[in-house]
Each structure stands twice: as C-alpha cells, then as structure tokens.
Amino acid sequence: MLSSDNRGVTVPSAVGPQGVDHYENFPVASWLCPPALRPAVVAIYGFARTADDIADEGDADAATRLALLAEYGLRLRACATGQVDASDDRWPGVFQPLAAAIERHALPVSLLTDLLSAFTQDVERTRDARGYADRADLLDYCRRSANPVGRLLLHLYGRTSARALAESDHVCTALQLINFWQDISIDLPRGRRYLPDADLIAHGIDPATPAQWPTHPRAPALVRSLAEWARELMLAGSPIVHRVPGRAGWELRAVVQGGLRILDKIEHQGFDTFTRRPRIGAADTPLMLWRCLRMKQSRS
Fold it and tell me: CA–CA separation, 215 vs 143, rounded Å?
C-alpha cells in the first residue's frame, strides 16, 4: 500500500490518526523538515495514512471499505472547496488540517484523488483475487499509490521541474515496489498479489496457484529480479536529493538509503521474503548515515 508506509534514518514506529501502529521505512515531518512545512506534511500524511487504513486495516468486508472510501472522497471534494465540517467525528483531525494546507500551499487536489483511486483499487483487486498482469500494470498502480506523495512534497518545496518530478516518481515507485517485495509474507495470506503475472510466468511459476509460490524453487530468483528492478529505479531517481534544498535534501537522502538498505537485507536473506520480512533497525543507522554523507551530486 502506501509506500509511504512511510518513512527513518532509524525505523521508529509511527502511530496513524486512527491509533493504528505502523512500521515505517522512513520518517514523516521529522526534525529535518522545515518547521513552516511540517503542518502541511503532517496533514498530507494523515490524509493518506487514514485512507490506507480504511482500505487495509481491521475486519471490515470489501463492500464496507469501498463505501467508506467513497465517503472519504466526498469529504475530500468538500475539503478542497473549503466546506469542512468542524463537527466531523468520523475522521477527526484529517480534513481541517488538510483544508488549511490546500489553501495555504495550493496543493494539487488531483494528486490526493489519485491516492484514493489506488486504495480503492487495492480493495477491489483483493476482493476479486486479482493480481497485476505485468510491470506496466503495476507501474500504473504505483503512479497513483506512491508518486503523488513525492509530487506533493516537491510542490511544497517549490521544485516542480520535469526532471525533478521524473526523479521523484522513480524514487516513490521504487519505495512502493521495495515495500511489496519486503512484505510478500504478509500480503499473500491477506490476498494481496503484487508479483506481476508476466514475471511469475517468466520464472516458471503459475500465477493461478499463489499458495505454491513460497515453496517454488524459482521463487528466490523471481524476487531477485524484482529487487534489481526496484534498485535500478531508486538509483535513477536518487539525484533528486540534490535538487531539494537544505534539511529536506538530507531527509530525502535518508528515504533513498532506507529503501536501498531494505533491498540489501532482502539480498542477505537469499531473496526469500515469502517466509520472513526484513526490517531496518537501530543497528542499521550508522551505515545509512555514512551512505547519506557519501551521496555525491552527478556532474550531469
């Protein structure tokens, strides 16, 4: 889901707006974020995290989730036009801060709508036991589930050149893919299928028998090829860290290195994430900080 599963240099747990405990790969609105932008960053995160929880947490059935997401979308449209209900007790603390951020920073609401469309798609595909046909199909999902987060943050920092947006998209998509390959042992039992059918078939694995994927002899090779894809995207987008000024650029370095470190851990456990989920811990902090310091700007 939200690769914004969001976010440190170390990996503290963050508590979402609904009180759900979330393991995080990189930080949101940490001390590295300029104070003037923190309310907007927190508002964006609160909106996205809550929508993600509607789609993914608890025991509600698919019909209930879809109905709640539709209502959430109506609240977003009202929020975008300044019609926020101050007495809203269903999602307290979400839409009032978001409305303030939209007004103050002229946030592109279409990006927030894209996020909701991706969460809705997650529910629908899980309900129908559908996966993704190929990498292009999965990239379209990432375009709406992950890339809007980076584009919203770039909007706040005033970095909206075509090159910056493309690099941001690479990083955000890579983070989403890394989250998928990290979470296979969690997603498969929940009916979430992000391994593209075309990649499964290329490795001799039947897309129609997901229960057999974890024990297939080619499963590690499959994960390896997908992890390499994610690493290539991350490295392609990494120059974005030099386009965002000051402390925010260092925040982005931590984001990039957090994703790459997860890929290292996937490799170290033999690309077997069907049975064990790799995590970043405090012991990874020194290496990641060192790597952040060594990220040099390209001459191109």
Answer: 31
